[in-house]
Design goal:
Number of helices: 10
Number of strands: 5
Strand content: 5-15%
Number of domains: 2
Shape: globular
Structural class: alpha+beta
Radius of gyration: 17 Å
Length: about 200
């Protein structure tokens, strides 16, 4: 396990698009699929955080004090915060707060929104996941685990996030990415033409 963590830390720093594509190719996942998941999860913000808490006043107070953008909404008897730090330093401040904050149920970190479950399972430090390339590799690894369990299917995609409706959000994002003129993905012609050659 230590060797796996060191491998991720030694990856060279590259552009965000390269990071996601390299991660996808490392795990034999469609780069288009991984890019769509990244876009749905964080909108491309490598410092994005998603936090579920049963005691929102402490987190709200911190975010307001630091001037960090966020939205909050009720979610299954908890409050879900979507936090958009503008820098690594801001994200680290929020992550440090989470270590001692009462009522935090779970959280997701960075570009691919790697969940606390995986962070704890592999003894990762959440701040490591603020590096876009490192995060993309872990996101691809998690998706590869879901594919190994559920097959290369929409079931694997929704299990990445935990909600069935998530697969439709990813599918719509794939279509959006394919419609953009800058898309260089080879599968886009089939998707945008409804599978017709």
């Amino acid at each position: 396990m230590i060797a796996l963590i060191l491998l991720f830390l030694l990856l060279p720093v590259r552009g965000l698009a390269d990071c996601v594509e390299d991660a996808a190719l490392s795990y034999r996942i469609s780069p288009l699929l991984l890019r769509a998941i990244e876009s749905v999860e964080s909108g491309g913000n490598p410092y994005a955080l998603s936090i579920q808490t049963i005691n929102p006043k402490f987190l709200k107070s911190l975010l307001d004090k630091l001037g960090i953008k966020y939205t909050m909404r009720p979610y299954k008897g908890r409050v879900l915060f979507s936090v958009q730090p503008s820098s690594k330093q801001e994200a680290e401040q929020v992550l440090n707060f989470l270590k001692s904050s009462p009522g935090v149920v779970t959280y997701d970190v960075g570009l691919m929104q790697v969940n606390k479950l995986w962070i704890e399972k592999y003894n990762l430090r959440p701040e490591w996941l603020l590096d876009a390339c490192y995060n993309a590799k872990w996101g691809a690894y998690v998706l590869a685990k879901m594919i190994a369990k559920y097959g290369y299917s929409w079931d694997a995609v929704w299990h990445y996030n935990g909600k069935k409706s998530y697969a439709w959000r990813v599918f719509r994002k794939i279509k959006d990415l394919c419609r953009s003129k800058s898309s260089g993905f080879e599968y886009c012609r089939l998707i945008t033409q409804g599978g017709k050659e």
